[in-house]
Amino acid sequence: MASNKKYWKSEAELNPNDSIVEALRQNEFTEQIPVDEFLGDKENLSATTTNRRDFLKYVGFSTAAAAVAACEGPVHKSIPYVFQPDRIVPGVANYYATTIADGFDFASILVKTREGRPIKIENNTDAKVNGGANARVQASVLSLYDSTRVQGPMANGEPIEWKILDATVRAKLGSLANSNQQIVLLTQTHASPSTDRLIAEFKEAYPNTSHVVYDAISEDAALNAFNTMYGERALPDYDFEKAELIVSFGADFLGDWQGGGYDSSYAKGRVPKNGKMSKHIQLESNMSLTGANADHRYPMTPTQQKIALAKLYGKLNGSNVGGGTSDVDEAVDQMAAHIRKAGSKAVVVTGLNDINAQTVVLAINKLLSSEAMNAEQPRYVRQGDVAKVNKLVSDMNAGRVGALIMDGVNPAYSLPNAADFVSGLEKVDVSVSFAYNNDETAQAAKYVAAASHYLESWGDAQIKKGHFSLAQPTIRELFDTRQFQSSLLTWMGNDKSYYDYIKETWDTSILQGSSWNQALQDGVFVTSETPVADVEVTDATASSEDESSAEQSSIAPIAAAVRSLVNSTSGGTELVLYSKVGMGDGRQATNPWLQEFPDPISRVSWDNYITVSKADAEQWGFENENVANGGLDGSYAKLTVDGTVLENVPVIIQPGQAKNTIGLSFGYGRRAGMKAEMATGVNAFSLYKNFSESQNVTVEKASGMHEFACVQLHKTMMGRGDIIKETTLEIFNTKDKHEWNYMPQVTLNHQEIPVTSPDADLWQEFDRSIGHHFNMSIDLNACTGCGACVIACHAENNVPVVGKKEIRLSRDMHWLRIDRYYSSEETFAQDEQTKDESADGYRATMLELENPSENPQVAFQPVMCQHCNHAPCETVCPVAATAHSRQGQNHMAYNRCVGTRYCANNCPYKVRRFNWFLYNNNDEFDFNMNNDLGKMVINPDVNVRSRGVMEKCSLCIQMTQKTILDAKREGRVIKDGEFQTACSSACSSGAIVFGDINDEESKVAELKKDDRMYHLLEHVGTKPNVFYHVKVRNTDEA
Amino acid sequence: MKKVLNRHLFTNVLGLSLLLFSTSFYAQEEAAATEVVAEEASASGDGDPVKGKQLFNQNCAACHALNRKMTGPALANVETRLAEDEGLDREWLYTWIKNSAGMIASGDSYANKIYAEYNQAAMTAFPTLSNQDIDDILAYTAAPPPAPAAATATAESEGGSGEGSGGISNEIILGALVLVFGLLVIMLFLVNNTLRSIARANGVVLEKAKAEKRVPIWKAFAQNQFLVLVAAIFLLLGSAYFAYGWMMQVGVDQGYAPVQPIHYSHKIHAGNNKIECKYCHSSARVSKHSGIPSLNVCMNCHKSIYEYTGNPEGPSAEDLANGYTNEFYTGEIKKLYKAVGWDEENQRYTGETQPVEWVRIHNLPDFAYFNHSQHVSVAGIECQTCHGPVEEMEIMYQYAPLTMGWCINCHRETNIKVEGNEYYEAIHAELSKKYGVEELTAAMMGGLECGKCHY
Predict the structure, then answer these.
(1) A771 touches B: beta carbon within 8 Å
(2) A-contacting residues of B 359-398, CB under 8 Å?
(3) pLDDT at residue A922 is higher than 80
(4) Hey, is the C-beta of B250 within 8 angstroms of any chain A C-beta?
(5) Coil, strand or helix: which one is B169?
(6) Contact assessment for residue A912 and residue A890, using Cβ atoms and an 8 Å cutoff
(7) What pLDDT shows up at residue B67?
(8) With an 8 Å Cβ cutoff, are A90 and B287 in contact?
(9) Which residue has the higher pLDDT, A661 or B252?
(10) Would you call B65 an interface residue with chain A, using a CB distance cutoff of 8 Å?
(11) In chain A, which among 867-906 make CB contacts under 8 A with chain B?
């Protein structure tokens, strides 16, 4: 939003004729610094008491004194508990099951606490639904220790006491009872049975109350479509593991589509088993994480997607859907053929926030009787109602709202008509915002009720019908905060604690006699399901009975929907808004881990930007260029949507972006109540008109270049297929391993021998057969590139945040990175072919291969220290700071390192990270390690590295050592699965498996023997302890 | 305190003899008291106070003292008190002791009064005690407790010895010595002068000229370049050696014994009372930290141990010399009560706590990972191996240097305790085959690898 406000520094500036202002503008230092005056005056100089020699003496003395003083060790105080809680043993971690339900992310998780401080989020493997923590959930533990949190209730910006706030609000609510003004609760999606009951009771206490649920990123169309078809405002649940064919019309289901959490079931179906794996076709505008994982990806504008969807329905239904453009016909034909083949094993999903599209998709799945879609047990993770939100804004402006209580929402930032909302808010007598940061809404509201973090709160959630989860506090409130539900209870005059309230709800209506303590310990509870067979039987009979009538009644609206879809037209360039894996809807924008988290696709951190296709970029004159210091620069664009202008939006040229579309992510551009470092990007919500993610936009080039902090400038592998080995399902099934997983050869005595042969080895092999020998397996088929492991590694290993400037200088500290490569030709296989055939003109070919294709294949590869058995870094360290262990881990003794960086230069995988600066207790890096609160997240078992030392992945040696010690203490053998690293335990898709290969029974030993196993850059002969599994694509081409 | 200490240094013998006297006096007194008790008991004729004392200590002392309110009321002359104030007889006491809860439930007025007065904590029922046992205990409670009188006597005698032991101090002796040396110097000077004057008188020429001709030794030394070079090298090597030695001491705080906010004596707890280390430092079994015990652990015992009575013979001369009197220790216990917020009068916690800021003695740098449970539980190493004779330490100090060389040496020399630990079975078999030894050291298991301690 452009502002017309004029800011002035002094009154003089208001007078245009003031000479001082002009003088200052020309010359900041109007008075000369009197150096000459002082030095020129010999008399004065000789009269000074401190001469040069004295000065040197003082310097010498103070240096010596400082040096001597440094010899004395500091006195450390140790303060034990006065009364030690019997559950806490200093030095031993406790785990609690809880649930995050912040309105955007819903997941059942475990929280690791040390000495009462939550320090890490783990997956809750007991949970059958959403048991995996994504990158944002992993990072949410740091948001607990956010120094910009609201630390107590406020009234008009001044701190007040809860008592006073309670009294004021209760008085007002009471006085509204007999007025014609209403009380409105504007909340996030809670999906909480107890909160629902509480709000219902609140409505009884204050009958003129209405409840408006608001999702910043709306799934309104999907909810309404499901409601029309199935009679419940919810979202269908999908099990992609059951699908043999997945067709997605712009649904980023590996991202945040319909609440997310689908990656683990998707990944299970993607690993070739018995020669079979699922096939995934994606039609989309932006290159999304999901599209990057697809076997076939068709870049299409939203309009084209709609037409294609309509035509696909026509094909499957046998009806003729005419009209629309014909350029989608080929794709539609192919998809229809595949879907017919897969039958009920196919599933179609869409991310188009358009009720017609959603209706048609549901109809197709119903038509196919898709096994992957579950409409019986829908999800409740999005409940926002656009119509009600819009009505609320108009009601507020019309003065019909007397009190507005907001929880978990920031409409003053995330509403497209935020200005209307703010002006309406001024007309509301009592506006209370349960705010976490002093955000836009909190600043506009009269009262700010400081909200507790979810790790400080009680709660419950019903993520999916019948799947309940409980949230328990893992730490007492750090500040004078209170959760929304407790406040509602107080304002209703109910003395009960919210804990008792939840327990009551569960005891009466959920647990059905099961143990509350057990449910609390597990964190999840599934209501005893009626036997599945029964449900299906009743279902079948019901549907067969109703079939004819139901079909009759539903055909008419579907036909209308199809007609409207096929007739959709676009008015030029389409803007497609999306959410990033790192930032989501922006509620954690103050979290430095997430700000520094590189986007899986663009690999840009600390920014949002528009993504444009190369062709469009040329047309509009946009450029991306790498400047001398290695940084990426991009042009600025000016976007205009329906009169709203967004200035200075940086541009990234994105391979795979559909022509005539641009993408822009939500979640950035927050400014209020946050540190300057975190206030990054532009606010895409201002263009989110009518809560539609696709908008007609006018794009213009603006002047200037934006400096990006992009961690990967290399886009393609340039035909070097040995980095990410991949093949197609057909070759994988029919050809010999040698064909698709080729072992590099070297020549010895004029004979070709495999590079892994001991004869080809310069070094002697150590015996690692005794004890443990750790290996890590990374399945490139299961890895979706989601990045949860990156944040988990951050949290476990105290990886510092270095800031945008340093990232731009390639000084990122991520121990684990996920490389993303595009193919230069249409597929990676063709890249290799092009390279091999470029006998003459090699240089030109290679230059050509640097450029990614218009619609490339994409591959992700997590790379951390490969823990080579013949490590190149170890041999060049002059001080033996890095050494190998018998257990296969490459050790790094930080206190021994002198920072020559030879090791980093000699590492073929470029996984070593150098501490250019001291990142803790340093105002230059004002992130979490620079304040006492943010430091509470530090893992006490891992060293915080200092300046001038090299650091890298340790294969989480603190975790393996702990596992070994636990077994020793208990005098038992270690079972498979006990050894974990932060990344392997964070990986909900099962791509990263860690274990001991000396244990023959272990999963990792089995995976190492698999035909798909290969080592990264095997021909270098480093013999890594990390290995990968060849990526298999289920494409049609042989 | 320091003055007392000095004075006592020279009067050890005197003090010791006085102490011996006082202890014998104490013993006599106690004997006398016991006699009195016995007499009284035989007079009432229904309980043996000696047996009663034993029973009391076994069953009652955790919650009751004779002259002091604790978890339960003070019990001195309890029977008389009850009979006089409440009109309750011994039968009431029998019932109460055997089943107090039942009595409260039955609505007995005094039982309920007591129950309410003592925070509604019902007294443990002792159905195993016979009436005779209770008689014995009551006989013991009825006897005037002799200990305080004896203690006063001891204190008095201590005071006496303290007063008497003043007198000659170090300074006087030193002064005398200085005086003697001074006299000697003066005498030498005088003798020398006299001899010279005698020589001059006798016409002896002092050999001054001769001395001038000879090349002084330092000049000869300076002229010999080889010698200078060798000497310089030795000098440099020597100073380098000492400089290195001194530098290596930087940051090694062996012997560091800071003054703690509460004078906690490991000698009394681990030495005299033989309390197992891990009773208080319980987390050493399971955690990387041995843990400084939280104050509620202290209160497990110190709820009833409210004063220091020390050895039955009274404080040793050494203790006295350091000022560690019984009163001193009792004062330290009061510091604990203040920190934990214990109201001695009413035997309850006030909730006003002041966490104790102990000064940390063993400071391993952050880059070294050390796990107590690995060494204590798995390896079964005695605490004293690294922490020294803690049971003899009045003031805790750092015994081991805690340097990496010290760690490594131990890892090289110490065998792993593999017996009965299933974890080691396979590894031990393979490793001992590989190294051809039966006993494996920590180093053979990989205990010297950098990453085992540095991550």
Answers:
(1) yes
(2) 359-360, 363, 365-367, 369, 371, 373-374, 377-378
(3) yes
(4) yes
(5) coil
(6) no
(7) 78
(8) yes
(9) A661
(10) no
(11) 881, 883, 885-887, 889, 891-896
Q: Closest to B292 (Cβ–Cβ): which among A78, A92, A968?
A: A78
Q: Under an 8 A CB cutoff, do B283 and A91 touch?
A: yes
What CATH number matches the domain at B31-149, 1.10.260.40, 1.10.1200.120, 3.90.550.10, 1.10.760.10? Answer: 1.10.760.10
* Distances in whole angstroms, Cα of residue A606 to Cα of each of A582, A589, B60, B78: 10, 10, 70, 78
Q: What is the pLDDT of residues A317-326, one digit of tens each?
A: 887 777 666 7
Closest CB to B373 among A77, A954, A969: A969
CATH code linked to domain A188-193+208-218+401-526:
3.40.50.740
CB pairs under 8 A between A and B: 154
Please choose, from the candidates A335, A295, A288, A269, the residue with its C-alpha nearest in 3D space to the C-alpha of residue A727. Answer: A295
Given this model, what pLDDT does residue A136 score? 94
pLDDT at site A534:
37
**A752–B contact, CB cutoff 8 A:** no
Contact indicator for B385, B413 with CB cutoff of 8 Å = no
How big is the CA angle at A400 (ends A399 and A402), to the nearest 5 degrees?
90
Which residues, including other chains, have CB under 8 Å from residue A327's CB and lie 6 or more apart? A304
Q: Which residues of A touch B339 (CB under 8 A)?
A: 82
What is the C-alpha radius of gyration for chain B, rounded to an integer number of angstroms?
35
Average pLDDT, chain A: 88
User: Was domain A726-1033 assigned CATH 3.30.70.20?
Assistant: yes
Contact criterion met (CB < 8 Å) for A89 and B291: yes
The pTM (predicted TM-score) of the whole model is 0.83
Provide the residue ranges of all domains of chain A, joining segments of one domain with +.
188-193+208-218+401-526, 220-379, 576-710, 726-1033
Is A593 strand, coil or helix? Answer: helix
Question: Mean pLDDT over residues B185-194, rounded?
Answer: 92
| Structure confidence at residue A529 (pLDDT) | 57
Residue type, A66: A
Q: CA nearest A82 in B: which residue?
A: B295
Are the beta carbons of B283 and A79 separated by less than 8 Å? no
**Is the pLDDT confidence value at A60 over 80?**
yes
B147 touches chain A (CB under 8 A): no
| Mean pLDDT lowest among A39-48, A546-555, A605-614, A850-859 | A546-555
CB contact under 8 A, A76 and B292: no
pLDDT of B155 above 80: no
Q: For the CA atoms of chain A, what is the radius of gyration?
A: 31
Q: Which residue of A has its CA nearest to B429?
A: A770
CB A416 within 8 A of CB A689: yes
Instruction: Tell me how close the Cα of A887 comes to any Cα of chain B, in angstroms.
Output: 9
Q: Given an 8 Å threshold on Cβ–Cβ distance, is B295 in contact with A81?
A: yes
Distance in angstroms (rounded) separating the CA atoms of residues A628 and A645: 33
> Is the model's pLDDT at A891 over the cut of 70?
yes
Per-residue pLDDT averaged across B222-227, rounded? 88
The CATH classification number of A576-710 equals 2.40.40.20
The Cα–Cα gap between B153 and B161 comes to 12
Calculate what percentage of chain A has a pLDDT beyond 70.
94
Q: Between the CA of residue A127 and those of A130, A132, A523, A988, what are the distances in Å?
A: 7, 8, 8, 11
